[in-house]
Fold:
Amino acid sequence: MSWLTAENLALVFGALTALSVLLYAILDGYDLGVGITLPMHEEAWRDTAIASIGPFWDANETWLVLAVGLLLVAFPAAHSAILHALYLPAALLLIGLILRGVAFDFRAKVKPERKRNWDWTFKFGSFLATFSQGFMLGIYVMGLEYRTGSIIFACFSGLCVTAAYAMIGNAWLIGKTTGDLQRRAIRQCKLAGVWTLAGILAVSAINPLVNANVYQVWTQPPLAYFFSAIPLLCFAMFALGYVALKRLPLPDDRGAWLPFFICKVIFICSFVGLALSFYPFVVPNQLTLYEAASSQESLTIIFFGAVIVIPIIAAYTAVAYYAFRGKADGLKYY
Amino acid sequence: MLDTLILSRIQFAANISFHILFPTITIALGWLLVYFKIRFDLSQHPVWMRAYRFWVKVFALTFALGVVSGITMSFQFGTNWPGFMETVGNIAGPLLAYEILTAFFLEATMLGIMLFGFNKVPRWLHTLATLLVAVGTTMSAFWILVLNSWMQTPVGFEMRDGVAHATDWFAIIFNPSFPYRFTHMMMASALTVCFLVAGISAYRLYRGDNKKAPRITLKTALFSAALLAPLQAFIGDLHGLNTLEHQPAKIAAMEGIWHTEQGAPLVLFAIPDAETQQNRFAIEIPKLASFILTHDFNGELKGINEFPDAHPPVAPVFYSFRVMVGIGLLMLAVAWWCSLRLYRHGELSQLQYKVLIGMSFSGWIATLAGWYVTEIGRQPYLIHGVLKTRDAVTTVAGEQVALTLIMYLVLYVVLLIAYVRTIFWLAKRAIDVEEYDLSLPGLPERKTPLATTGAEQ
Structure:
């Protein structure tokens, strides 16, 4: 395997790590989003909303473990530089994830009078996790530095990432539910979409101003012409999504999965946009993929494992989604 | 100025101690559920499904706590111990990657089908999912114990410019202490689950539950414990011999041997004093330690004095070891005492119920104590003979570590209380409700006579 050079391996693992982060953002994104906008005034709605993500959330969260794990094993120097700088927000993220993960199970098992407290814990934990993620993204974009300006920006980014998760979470609910809960999800999705759009516009404007090479990526012909397709597609999706949400729900539940599909495209566009902005850096302006990569021999070993196992993971994940297709009914533990 | 090293060590200890509680239960409980499910599939007798139903709830809750506390671990390496991956990343990295790829996704995805898929997938697929969850948890234990054992007995690598490079993956995976540590931990998990199941089943029966399911689970758990407890003592002994060969300083601390001696006594209890390098108030059995470890009453055991700069702190290792062995022996005694009575009379005495209830979580204490022996016993090294703990620590400010440590500790205490209370609440609720009601539509594929009558009416 002569093409498995150190450089190619670094690129492959960079791509794999990026793919895991993207899959995490989309997959755990929708279940975090359901958590953030959990309807606190209607217990039956909460049960349905949580039932819709019940079989999936655990596997979704595993993508974060894989993403952080890949960063750790393939780019250890980057893992330690990034998490060193993001020490406190990362701890808050973990606490958020712990709270929501356990609340999810406790709510179904504790005394009835305590269930509502765990629902609040679920909602709060989801919010803490998404806000921390957005905050971390903001600090990352600003070059992993804490200045007044970057902290304000990171807080704004925290809110916008929360909005993006709320958007995709409600888009998921539109597909998974019916009736009043579905109508609520449509409203919430619209609202969250506006905030998400604002966030994407803000990052798109500020990022090139802060980072000189980002400016170059998006303005240097001829590649910039191709790259411009990404934001165009993204904004077109917002427009399409707005039209779609105005018309939903349709008879026979037609198009109920369209918003979720649109959200996925928006997530992919935003992510690819960010990845292109920073390539080849894995720590902005400090460390490239190629400098941070582990030794060739250990990456080769992981590479073969990944090539064999990832298709299998995809296959049984497909089985799980197929088994739980359709509207969420009152799922119960068995 | 707060000391980042000691705080990071406490934080790692707190995180991993909290985390290991839950996998210790899910590893063996997963297999117990497979057993219940297969018994149900074969016999169609609803009692197996009732046993399954009750314990799958405990499993789900435990699994959730294990997953979320495990995510913390994957961050810890980078946040607090960057020197670890810098030095041995080429070996630890692939092992961790294989754990995630072959175990985490499998168990997480199959868990969804196992918990929610009973009515949505064919019967065989549900059983297969249950099996794959058990396989997944065991695989994940396999990989993480490979890594931990390699840190204790590192082989199959060479150091180039201060960085470890793998030379023999087979040797790394099946490193000298791995077979012992893996079996010892699997048995620890099994015994922990035996006593949890026995304790909770005893609680239900003690509170007047007259259903068949808790009786069956009590019997299964007690008889298994009676079988496994002596086996565990035997495996533990082999593990000790292995440690003597590779990490003699750890054995010296475990046995409280300060100075190399022939015919070393077995110290039952003492207060090890690091100042004077002696045991105070020692109660000893002459020559027994030498006999156990060298199979010769006058065999020589190396003392702490042989390892002037590279020995662990004696007291915590010494005490933890006695706690582990003490609980192990107590489990052995209780398992046999209760099993014999159950075998002869078909039920336990009130006192036995109370003892079992009290010992519901005794496996946790023994498991933690055992891990403290082996992990504190590895100090001052992080990787035995290769990397010292203090050389791997982060440069994050002590205040930040202290702040996160407090947050974690508060959270863990709250969650532990909630967890134990919820398990007992589930048991209490199960006394009044039937876990698996045959009159519900669509549940059994082959209808038993009872269910058929129900459907005709």
Q: What stands out?
A: The first helix of chain B runs from residue 4 to 43. The radius of gyration of chain B is 24 Å. Chain B touches chain A through 69 residues (CB under 8 Å). The beta strands of chain B are 157-160, 163-166, 261-262, 266-273, 278-285, 300-301, 381-383, 387-388.
